[in-house]
Amino acid sequence: MYQHVQPNNTNHIHANGHNVPTKATTNGTMCANGALGTEGPEAPETDASGTGRMRKPLERNGSTQNHAVHLERRLGLFSGVALIVGTMIGSGIFVSPSGLLVRTGSVGVSFIIWLACGVLSLLGALAYAELGTMNTSSGAEWAYFMDAYGPAPAFLFSWVSTLVLKPSQMAIICLSFAQYAVEAFVTECDPPRGVVKMVALVAIVMILFVNCYSVNLGMAVQNVFTAAKLVAVVVVICGGAWKLMQGNTQHLSNAFNGPMPNVGAIATAFYTGLWAYDGWNNLNYVTEEIKNPSKNLPRSIIIGIPLVTLCYALINISYLAAMSPQEMIESEAVAVTFGNRILGALAWLMPLSVTISTFGSANGTLFAAGRLCFAASREGHLLDILSYVHVRRLTPAPGLIFHLHRLDILRRSDAGPDRDALHQTQPSPALQSADHHSRCGLGHLRVSRGGTNFRDPTR
Questions:
Q1: Does the pLDDT of residue 118 top 90, yes or no?
Q2: pLDDT mean across residues, the chain
Q3: For residues 158 and 407, what is the distance between their CA atoms, to the nearest angstrom?
Q4: Which residues pair with 390 in a beta bridge?
């Protein structure tokens, strides 16, 4: 059912000068799961040691032998945009966009921070686009740490990410999904916590099955749910435009009234805003499965992140056209309150939109997390069994299933009505630290390599 490459004594000498044990040659009839399709000629071999093979700088894509088992390049431009947009837009913009209002106390300042966070995310993503076109290995930060800093930081990142960060993300997003899915049927009291946890568990198992069964099915689910959540965004924007045309601009005309927030409040507001944009780097985790990554990776980023920024800005304007800033702050679910005021009998569309949005975000999160686990284990940084690939379905099933090890988060979680607390439990500082060090790694590589082998991702 599963095949992987048998490790031997061959070491690949990478551009960073570190000898990193890899599993990229075949032995007998077993096939290499780490043999991932590449574009361009293979690096020449050397006989310096009789066993070593010199690779081109910034490339670590495995063997391209015809008999090798490998993940196929199946993601086009549309799927790339869907993975970025579908992962970035979760429940936050529908449930607790008032976090910036709480911290700044100003509509105008909060709006500027929403846009600034979008610009910062785009700049970071463009750096990742350049890294991703130079190094077409999956794994995002893990692969870039390998090139810039060596195997030790990459090893640490892979363990922290696969043991804590990614499983925690998955559990928290599915708890948000379960909270609103159960609320659709329990209207007279708070949803029972045991039921919420059970629904979250069912959602995780469903997403896991879909992604283990077929890459195409997993991306089809992602594409459909991304399209559905964009429809919900359009509904909110159209409702806000209708209220603005009626002259409801009083909450926007005096946007900068009131005292200016202090530096600490602005910093925490940026933290909240950047959490809403989290997920912009997910496409870099699956670079080996992107068709023509040198073009589709940067194009997906350039399309996806400005689209999300535009959606966030217009949604906030729409909310303020229908309710006051204080009403937004007091609302437990801003989109639900908006729907009750604007949509009338169709108000049920807003809770449905939240469940759709969170389910799609969870699917994209697991899709990307499984590839990180697969890529790191292929280099010997994680358990060898996690580098297996299903021989017929060509999915990294063990790497996906591994993320079930943190289901105890559901048991220990205190899933309840405090949604904002639930959303802010994400380990964003650790993720943002990894993003920052990856971008620093790009500068380090540019200086140390003298600007060679680098491409402009916007071309």
A1: yes
A2: 78
A3: 19
A4: 2
Cα angle 146-150-155, degrees, rounded to a multiple of 5: 70
The pLDDT assigned to 309 comes to: 95
> In CATH, what number is assigned to the domain containing residue 94?
1.20.1740.10
The residue assigned the tokens 């970025």 is: 84
Whether 105 is in a domain gets the answer yes
273 neighbors 100 (Cβ within 8 angstroms): yes
Residue 349 lies in a domain: yes
Task: Read off the pLDDT of residues 48-86 as tens digits, 9 standing for 90 and up.
Answer: 333 333 334 344 444 334 445 678 889 999 999 999 999
- Structure letter (DSSP) for residue 42: P
**Domain of 245?**
73-448
Residue 27's DSSP bridge partners are 30
Within a domain: 19: no
Give yes or no for a contact between 45 and 272, defined as CB atoms under 8 angstroms apart.
no
Side chain identity at residue 361, one-letter code: S
Residue pair 399/386 in contact (Cβ under 8 Å)? The answer is: yes
**Contact in structure between 404 and 318 (CB atoms under 8 Å):** no
Please state, in angstroms and as integers, the Cα–Cα distance from residue 449 to each residue in 147, 321, 444, following that order: 11, 52, 8
Task: Tell me how far CA of residue 76 lies from CA of 69, 216, 297, 298, in angstroms.
Answer: 21, 11, 9, 12
Biggest CA-to-CA distance, the chain = 78
Instruction: Write the CB contacts of 105 (distance below 8 Å, at least 6 apart in sequence).
Output: 258, 259, 261, 265
CA–chain centroid gap for 110, Å, is 24
First to last CA, the chain: 41
* Residue 259, both tokens: 């005292």
Q: Cβ of 51: how many Cβ atoms within 10 Å?
A: 10
C-alpha–C-alpha distance, residues 101 and 328, integer Å: 8
The H or E element containing residue 102 is helix 99-104
In this structure, of 214-228, 324-338, 367-381, the range with the lowest mean pLDDT score is: 324-338
Check if the beta carbon of residue 205 is closer than 8 Å to that of residue 187: no
Could you give the C-alpha distances from 271 to 140, 304, 439, in angstroms and in order?
22, 21, 18
DSSP state letters, 278-300: TTTTGGGGGGGGBSSHHHHHHHH
In a domain, 9, yes or no: no
Strands 389-390 and 53-54: unpaired
Token couple for 360: 């799609």
- Among 455, 391, 402, which residue's Cα sits nearest to residue 35? 391
**What's the total number of domains in the chain?**
1
CA triplet 82, 87, 88: central angle to 5 degrees? 105
High-pLDDT (> 90) share of the chain, %:
33
Would you state the pLDDT for residue 449? 63
- d(CA 377, CA 351) in angstroms, rounded, equals 39
